[in-house]
Amino acid sequence: MNTFGRNFRVTTFGESHGPALGAVIDGCPPGVEISEEDIDRALERRRPGVHPFSSQRREEDRVEILSGVYMGRTTGTPICLLVRNTDARPSDYGALADVFRPGHADYTYQEKYGTRDFRGGGRSSGRETVARVAAAAVAQKVLSGKGISIGSRIIEVHGATSPEGMEREIAEAARLGDSVGGVVEVTATGCPAGLGDPVFGKLDALVAMAMMSIGAVKGVEIGDGFAAARMRGSEHNDQMDGRGFLSNHAGGILGGISTGAEIVVRVAVKPTPSISREQRTVDTAGKERTISVTGRHDACIVPRIGPVAEAMLALVLVDALLGQEMIRSWTPGGGKPISTGRET
Amino acid sequence: MNTFGRNFRVTTFGESHGPALGAVIDGCPPGVEISEEDIDRALERRRPGVHPFSSQRREEDRVEILSGVYMGRTTGTPICLLVRNTDARPSDYGALADVFRPGHADYTYQEKYGTRDFRGGGRSSGRETVARVAAAAVAQKVLSGKGISIGSRIIEVHGATSPEGMEREIAEAARLGDSVGGVVEVTATGCPAGLGDPVFGKLDALVAMAMMSIGAVKGVEIGDGFAAARMRGSEHNDQMDGRGFLSNHAGGILGGISTGAEIVVRVAVKPTPSISREQRTVDTAGKERTISVTGRHDACIVPRIGPVAEAMLALVLVDALLGQEMIRSWTPGGGKPISTGRET
Amino acid sequence: MNTFGRNFRVTTFGESHGPALGAVIDGCPPGVEISEEDIDRALERRRPGVHPFSSQRREEDRVEILSGVYMGRTTGTPICLLVRNTDARPSDYGALADVFRPGHADYTYQEKYGTRDFRGGGRSSGRETVARVAAAAVAQKVLSGKGISIGSRIIEVHGATSPEGMEREIAEAARLGDSVGGVVEVTATGCPAGLGDPVFGKLDALVAMAMMSIGAVKGVEIGDGFAAARMRGSEHNDQMDGRGFLSNHAGGILGGISTGAEIVVRVAVKPTPSISREQRTVDTAGKERTISVTGRHDACIVPRIGPVAEAMLALVLVDALLGQEMIRSWTPGGGKPISTGRET
Amino acid sequence: MNTFGRNFRVTTFGESHGPALGAVIDGCPPGVEISEEDIDRALERRRPGVHPFSSQRREEDRVEILSGVYMGRTTGTPICLLVRNTDARPSDYGALADVFRPGHADYTYQEKYGTRDFRGGGRSSGRETVARVAAAAVAQKVLSGKGISIGSRIIEVHGATSPEGMEREIAEAARLGDSVGGVVEVTATGCPAGLGDPVFGKLDALVAMAMMSIGAVKGVEIGDGFAAARMRGSEHNDQMDGRGFLSNHAGGILGGISTGAEIVVRVAVKPTPSISREQRTVDTAGKERTISVTGRHDACIVPRIGPVAEAMLALVLVDALLGQEMIRSWTPGGGKPISTGRET
Predict the structure, then answer these.
(1) Is B344 contained in some domain?
(2) Size of interface B-D (CB pairs under 8 A)
(3) pLDDT digits over C249-280, tens only?
(4) Number of domains comprising chain D
(5) CB spacing of B322 vs D326 below 8 angstroms
(6) Residue B341 resides in a domain
(7) How far apart are CA D324 and CA B322, in angstroms?
(8) Interface contact flag, B255 A198, Cβ < 8 Å
(9) Mutate to test the interface with A, among D73, D115, D127 (most CBs of A within 10 A)
(10) What share of chain A is helix, strand, coil (3-state, %, to 5)?
(11) What is the ipTM of this complex?
């Protein structure tokens, strides 16, 4: 399944070192203003080399809109976004053709398909997120038209919580030929109450899926998250007065439906698996080998996860927003915009 | 969306205090042995009153198989499972008709639909999980036929990690008219390598969605999870030798695809929102009120989450297993059963 | 796949001679007035024995609403509709356990699943349509609230087009222990322009799927249908003046999207395969046999197809209507109800 | 919905006179041999100008495979196929910007989206089928590996059934500035028994949807189709002996599941709506106008429907084939290839 969403459906394609990556968006409303420059700006934020210590691969990504936009506005038909790979160096990966890199998807792809495109991880590469960010730039346009905005920040790197501490941890890992993980917080403000569906289509369930679908993410929490497991009901419940909620321990979602308060999500990012320190592994023939992964790799990909996590949250919210439009004309008072709770 | 899964599709229905709850399973393979007794046994495990301090509601749940099973075996057609509500007491909830209980979905349902069934939370009640557990009992039959087994254990209650400590925390909360949360670990063993899809259909993404779709769950992690954020790549990577993986920090999933090692998932459960301590809230007219939720409620629902989390993991795995069957005849060596990695 | 629809999703279950049949509707808007009596009335129309020469099976079908309706109105949560089989006589079918009835799905089910429920055709029985008609009764309530109404009429039986001729053909077939087919026309009026999606989700494509999913249907046409193949463009094109379309050769759908004119569909119904005349067949062991199918069978099921075809058209239209709501707030002038073309 | 299929999912994009058209295939099994030349050959068959009297637009379509294929074989990841528009002449359509062409989707797109890309019909153009044919070339590779082959023939043009008669009808229509319709038959041989699902996912229901999703198609029939409505059961039933079916009135599908006999489908194609004869219409402001559609148009598109109908049948069958693989390991004797009935 390379499609995300029920209503605003994004299908991505492309390998790290193939000719191109891209996305087809099906279900975008008509009349939304969008340009290639809007999307390029979003791609610029996820680009490596923007942060110190990041991969030296130069991705001068430029999108081409192949369909679904006419005279600067969406028409309601599918939007194909194409990004050519310009700095792919497949030959860099010849040495990895028959060996499984620890912490990577090499072994599992081989087990699943009986074959794999070994050039830079192929489809499992972080580069695949280019397509997500491009598609989400369109989603963000729809959301901002409804007053919803999304942001993110790094809150922890290898245990450090101050900017200086984080930089020190990354530098130290780089020096050792090693890598470090961290935690990113993503938030959405201006989101109306009423988004999300009960039971399996809960807004937080879809957010969790969206976040965990990012390669390096190993944990997701909403609002107080794991800290809630150490709280009492009287501490965790968000009480209300006539102006709205008095706190936001729930992170803006109750019973799987948005409350109108800020949506707060945190994701745990594992340390980059590509490290130059020697590791034990096997090759496709089952023979034991050692490996030292050199090349253009980030000692810490946490800074690059932010824009991707924002993209995924945008895709979840635009989908829920469209779903809620579907029933709005039947809800009493459905003509008026859905009310937004007070934020805390 | 009240349907879970792509291949083994489970649609649930029913409210806490309506006539019945149930599930329709579409896509179950033919020839699987299943009886009403098998399902009743699974329901027994999630029943309140089995654990001390749990809700006093007596749910003598008995399933009726209405279709899709003939002479003790599935036929491949949809299986409808029905559980009547026998101890529903809608009149208990009359007082709550117009007031929003803090920490519950009352407010968000009202905002979403402009109406709600206020009897015991209606569809957002924990009782809805009866349908999931019943459907998953069928899934477990399919899985156990392939050598896959699933289990769970409570690893923390309000910070306590020993059985005695946990019981003390629950008793103390009950005494205070309050409640506590905790953490549950769910695992699957015997799962072959190769399950799950790249990108959006990653096995861990689906597990995260499945777990977060359980009402009280506010966080999900796979393998080392949030701890991975504080690790170096050299610590977190699972190296291999000729016999398989040397560790299982990844929790059995790499690049969204199962490795063959044990699948390890942990979920954060929030404290039960229904507490008798007085809380501030508003009613449907927006007027400020105070509320003390009395009735048959658990001071800690963590013990009851285990069977539900197992059920959700079973649904994810059976779905992935069927998906992998689809491509098996095209994978080289696809005739043989998929290899299982060494567990650690 | 026992689910129909993307937005108003109907999942049906149940076998002809099992305990019950039913449907779960997921995605019905909240606030729609519906009662068990409304649904029973719809079921009454498809009941055998209403028309002369029809099956003597007595189906006193009574629906039970198990969920999703509270105080006479839908709540937005899944609606489970249950109809018990009260006049099932599985023992009638013992003789057919191991032989394939010509024109029936016996052979193909056996090939597909390696097993089958042979009692009265099991899931492939026409009785399965009880669930469709029940679910569509809810859809019709949604549609009629938007001014859309659906009807059908028999236009041909075994070549006869007059009521007397049709009755004569059926009587003659019955006398011979044989059966006859016919053609039914289904129409929808009041349908706004703009329903349906381009390309694969064309409204006529979904109508065709819906109609051909009825057991006995072997052909579907929209508007002029097969007659259009013998026309010139100048005859078939529907020209317009300031008041709307001047004709309706297109049957209310152009480019897969409704025009606002009456939607006109015709379906070809094959003769009932159950006949008492002796036929050649084989049994499950591959041995040659002859068979004479006796029991309670219609010599002509055409009269009973009308209500089912209406039901399927209702399901298609309610789904498209909800889909169009989703983008309505983005279309210029989307606040106003979608315009309806002049009908001809 | 611009996606077709559940298992072998094809998403198409692109407008007639935009930069490009294309398709993303998600769910193609790994290891299938495919080249750009294979796909170009399929595109060549649907190209205008191959048949006399066809559109003079020169479509020298060349596909580019952007992903999912490595070293000449599919990898299991999504396959993006891109075809650039090289002979688009959007300026030809300036005159049509504000007027609705009779028989075209102009009016309905405007009603649906409140906007439209008027260049050559945009997304509703027959040129959109380039993407379907390209994707189906991959599907055909999968099918031919399982011994299934698909073909088509024109059986009627404006009532004429002989080649000479058909050519005469087309020439006469061209001379008059008019157009004609016809009937195409599509068949599949080598298809195993057991494909397709009961109830809504019937193989014939999916075939009907697939065919009716082709722009000009107004009717679909399987096997005897509408002729079955004029038959008796004793004539229409396909009896069996020990070697298989004695006839194929059912067209290879019973109860929605393939019988193993040849699958036979016929589609009614309406006359091309673009004619130079003057017609009445209105413009976007509602003002009455007359229109004469000149430019590069076919007087008869029936010859070009064949390859597209074959493509759609291939997509339906590959999807059903993959679906059946999913349950094959559970069906008794499921290890062996599914048996194929005798063809007649």
Answers:
(1) no
(2) 50
(3) 999 999 999 999 999 999 999 999 999 999 99
(4) 1
(5) yes
(6) no
(7) 11
(8) no
(9) D115
(10) 35, 25, 45
(11) 0.94
